[in-house]
Amino acid sequence: MHTTVEIEEKIRQRYHQPKHVEQFGIEPVPTELKTVRWHDIFSIIFGFALNPGSMLVGGLAVVSGLSFLGAVGAITSGVLLATIAYTIMATVGVDYGLPGQVSTRMAYGLRGAKWVPSFLRTIASTYWFAYQTVAGSLAVVAILDRWTGTPHSLVAVSVTFAVLQAVVAIIGYGSLKHLSRTALPFKIVILTYVVVLMATSGLPHFSISEVLAYPGKPEGNWLLFVTWMNVTAAGSLTMVTDSADFCRYTRSRKDMWLGTLIGKVGGGLFAALIGAYGAAATLGKTANVFEIVSGLSTGWFALLMFLIVIALDNWTINVLNLYTGGLSLSNMFEGLGRFWTTVIISVLGIALSATPDVVKGYTTYVGMLGNVFSPIGGVLIADYLFVKRMQIDLVALFEPKGSYWYWRGLNPVAVVWTLLGFLAYMFVIPKGWIQVLVTVVATGAGYWATVKLLAPRFEKLAVASHPTVVQREAVEDLDWDLAVRGTPGAD
C-alpha cells in the first residue's frame, strides 16, 4: 500500500519532473485526491464552452445564411448531441481516476490506443488551441485598434496569449481549476454586458425583437441547419476521448453529470447567443461579435471590460486543449511524463498560433476531425457500455500481454470499424442526415455485433470482453512500479 505522497514522488523521479506541478499523467489518480465537486467541473466546462471561438462559430452560422434562432438551435443541438457521448466516457475518469486516452486501451489495445485515438487527439488538441487563440486574438486586435486608432499585430498578440496559456497548462489541473473558478463570474458579467450593450445601442436591427425575427438568407434551410449542427457536434466530439481528463479528480458521478451537462450545454448556448446576436444585428455581415461591440462604444471602460474577458478566457480556458494534448502525447510516449509532453504540445501550439489562417476553413477542418472522431466515439461507447459493461480491468491497462493486449497490442476489430465509420461518414451517409449521430450509432452497433460474433471463436477477444476476474481494486493497491514504468517496448 502506497501513500499519495509516495506515489507522486515515484512518478516525479521516474520522469524527472519538477516539484509543485501536477505529477499524474497516464497514471490513475488515487481516491484521496478525488475531491473536486460539481461546481468546479461546471466552472471549467462552462468557461471552456464560453469562449471567443465558440462565439465566432455562432456568428459564422448566421453569416452563412441561418436565422438567429436557427443558428442558436443548430449549435446548441450539436453541443447537446456531443455531450451525451462526452458524459458517458467521462465516467471512466470518475470511477477509475484514469485519463481518457489510457482508457481507450481497453478498446483499441495498448498499442492501438497510441496510434489511433491518441495520435488523432494530439493533432486535434493542437489545432483547437491555435484556433481558439487566434479567434480570441482577433477580438483583442479589433478592440485595441478601435481604442488606440493604430493597427496591432495579430501574430504578436496570438503568440503572447499562447505563451501565457502554456504556463498554466504545464503546471497542471490545479491551476486550471482555481483560475477557472476565479475567472468565470467576471466572464459571465462582462459578456452579459456585451449583449445589453448591443440590445440597447439604438442602432437599426440591434433590438432584441429584430434580432429574434432575423430570418437569415433565402437559401437558409434544413440542410444548412444540419450542416452547422454536424460541425458543432463534430467539434465537440473530438474531446470524447479526453472527457475523463477533467473528471478524474471528481468526487462522484453525480458531481460529474451535473457539472458537465450544465456546463457544456449552458456554455455552448450562451456562446451561440452572443455570436449569433451580433451577426444577426448586422444582417449577416459580420461574424466577430467583438469587432461589432468595439464599434458601439469608444469609452475606455467598455473596451477595457472586453479586453479583460478575452484575456481571462485565453489564459484560463483554452489551456485545456494543451492539457489534454499533453495527456494524449503521454499515452503515446510513456517515458516522457505529463510535464514534458505538455511542454512539447505547448511549443507546437504556440507555433501554430502564429498562423492567422488557422481560423479560415473552420467547417472544413472540423468536418475532417468529425469524420474521424465520430466512429472513434462509436467504438469507445459501444465497447465501454455494451461489451465491457462499464467494468475495466485496471491493471490490464498497463500490463503487456494482459487482457487488453489483443493481437500484438492492437484490436483489429476496433480499427476496422473506425475505418468503416470514417468511410461511411465521408461517402455514404447523405448530407441531409445528422451524420455525426448516424456514424456514432452505426459504428458502435457494428463494432458490438462483430465482437459478439467473433468472441466465441477468438480467445483474445473473449478475454478482453470478459476478463476472468475484473480487477477494480483501489488505485493505492496497484503495482505502481508497473503503472509508472508503463508498457515496455510500446513507445
The figure for the number of domains is 1
The helix/strand class is mainly alpha
Sketch the major β-sheet: none
User: Termini distance?
Assistant: 28 Å
- The radius of gyration over CA amounts to 22 Å
Q: What is the average of the pLDDT values?
A: 86
Spell out the helices and strands N to C: HHHHHHHHHHHHHHHHHHHHH
Helix content: 55-70%
Strand content: under 5%
CATH superfamily: Hydantoin permease
User: Which regions have little confidence, pLDDT < 50, spanning 5+ residues?
Assistant: 468-476, 484-491
Q: Indicate the CATH class.
A: Mainly Alpha
Describe how the helices and strands are arranged.
Layout: H1 4-15, H2 38-49, H3 52-63, H4 68-96, H5 100-103, H6 105-108, H7 112-148, H8 154-171, H9 173-199, H10 208-212, H11 222-237, H12 253-281, H13 289-294, H14 300-316, H15 319-332, H16 338-353, H17 362-387, H18 412-428, H19 435-454, H20 459-465, H21 480-485
Helix pairs in contact: 2-9, 2-12, 3-4, 3-7, 3-12, 4-11, 4-12, 7-8, 7-14, 7-15, 7-16, 8-14, 8-15, 8-16, 9-12, 9-14, 11-17, 15-16, 17-18, 17-19, 18-19
Describe what you observe in this structure.
- There is one protein chain.
- The chain is mostly helical and 491 residues long.
- It has one domain (4-485): Hydantoin permease.
- 68% of the residues lie in helices and 0% in strands.
- Helix 4 runs parallel beside helix 11 (222-237).
- The model is unreliable at 468-476 and 484-491 (pLDDT under 50).
